[in-house]
Specification:
The protein is 48% helix and 12% strand. By secondary structure, it is an alpha/beta fold. It has a domain at 5-212: TIM Barrel, CATH 3.20.20.70. The protein has an eight-stranded parallel β-sheet with strand order 1-8-7-6-5-4-3-2. The longest helix has 19 residues, at 283-301. The protein starts with 9 loop residues before the first strand and ends with a helix.
């Protein structure tokens, strides 16, 4: 019987960290990892959507993970997203992640070509085989990957003893219940529904806005565990209002969040990589409003 305790909690998706020339900045990676460790989160999800993985080379993704592990390896649960749009590079990242001692690897399905379930299963199992001593997490994000996890595909993947569960970023909460009933450990993906996802059977959460306001997501989890659903709903609603404000800018969401973290006194981890849009000048006052919303919500609820 697997022990899922190291996955039960709030796990921020880790952001790409760049210097002024747009290169991966190892020092900023370590600073952000330490900043989140000090916030009391359970772990980090490295190299996923928030990490701008599809815009980075294999070498850059290795460099980021190496610096994360050097800073917080053994102190936080680390899940490394290793999927590339070809099997060979994905296997290389999987083997590298295992060599560093990560707790789990994860992968989206291949994007662009809509492959049949048999091909997707082979892709995931081939990646898992490259890290034979490491847990494997399926990353279900159909709105971006273009293909959705199904119960038959999950059942096929669970034949692989390394497959422990699903990072579920589809919007229907029902999906969490489906994967949970199949025996998978489920991470809630959509930040706007963490409380609902926990109620449906998620054992923890991995989120793209968690690093901007970890205190609030930690409080949602605490409220759920304590049965204080009234307060949990209030905090969740406040997180949603903050997310809606984040999405009201012209710049990319992660560019906004990185500015908010700087305003909070956190590390400067640079901007985002083209073709993602940097902050527009008019976005900066909105970032200040977001910072103030988060500050006020933490003071009220935490």
């Amino acid at each position: 019987m697997k022990d899922f305790s190291k996955y039960q909690g709030i796990i921020p998706a880790f952001y790409a960290c760049y210097d002024k020339e747009g290169r991966v900045d190892g020092g900023a990676v370590r600073a952000l990892a330490k900043y989140l460790l000090d916030k009391g989160v359970k772990g980090l999800y490295v190299g996923g959507s928030s990490g701008e993985c599809i815009y980075q080379s294999v070498a850059e993704r290795k460099e980021t993970l190496e610096n994360v592990m050097a800073e917080v390896g053994g102190k936080l649960t680390v899940i490394a997203h290793v999927a590339c749009n070809n099997t060979a590079d994905s296997r290389e990242l999987a083997a590298h992640a295992e060599s560093l001692g990560v707790d789990a690897i994860a992968a989206i399905p291949p994007i662009y070509f809509h492959l049949p379930p048999k091909a997707i299963a082979k892709y995931w199992n081939d990646i898992s085989d490259a890290a034979p001593n490491t847990d494997f997490v399926i990353y279900n994000i159909p709105q971006l990957a273009g293909v959705a996890l199904s119960v038959p595909l999950l059942q096929e993947m669970l034949k692989n003893p390394r497959v422990i569960g699903v990072k579920n970023s589809s919007m229907p909460v029902q999906d969490i219940q489906l994967w949970h009933d199949e025996g998978a450990f489920v991470f809630n993906g959509p930040d706007e529904q963490l409380l609902s996802g926990l109620a449906a059977g998620a054992g923890g959460g991995i989120g793209g806005t968690y690093a901007a306001m970890p205190e609030l997501y930690l409080e949602i989890l605490r409220c759920f565990q304590a049965g204080d659903l009234k307060k949990g709903r209030e905090v969740q609603n406040e997180c949603c209002r903050i997310i809606y404000k984040m999405c009201s800018t012209h710049g990319n969401l992660y560019a906004v969040i990185k500015e908010v973290i700087r305003l909070q006194g956190g590390p400067d981890v640079g901007g985002v990589r083209a073709p993602l849009l940097e902050l527009a000048e008019g976005d900066r006052p909105i970032a200040v409003q977001i910072h103030e919303m988060i500050r006020d919500a933490i003071a009220k609820y935490c």
